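Sample pair:
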Amino acid sequence: MTTCSHLDLLNDHLPMNGEVCLGRHVLAEFFECDPNTLNNLDKVEKFMMEAALECGATIVQKCFHMFSPYGVSGVVIISESHLAIHTWPELGYAAVDLFTCGSKCDPKVAYEFLKKKFCSKNASFTELKRGILSPDTMKVAEKPFEIMQQFQN
């Protein structure tokens, strides 16, 4: 099973300012989605699992729940971290967290995949650097996450 090692981080995550981060966390908003898809436990689970594989992750476990009268929540645990979702089909909206570490996975690939599968007409994301490390000490800096990128279409 793949895990995040400090060597992977040093070799694969040296941003331009010399900081190393433990993970990339994409907070995604999907608007104007197909409500039938968002209210279908099997489809949401299938698409989240496929999104994990599409972005290069190794799936460890999954847990999904259908709410009454509508809505699905779920998480896919990956060895690189997790993908989580909650849907509001009555609003055509899904909130998704895509958290990965190492360079093997790209959470933005999962974002684009889910955007298509949910037939989202409008979507946005914010990408955060989580767990910023000093390359010299390999200690986590005691400061808030940093926003790497924001996107809306």
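Strands lie at 20-31, 59-66, 72-78, 81-88, 93-100, 122-133, 146-152.
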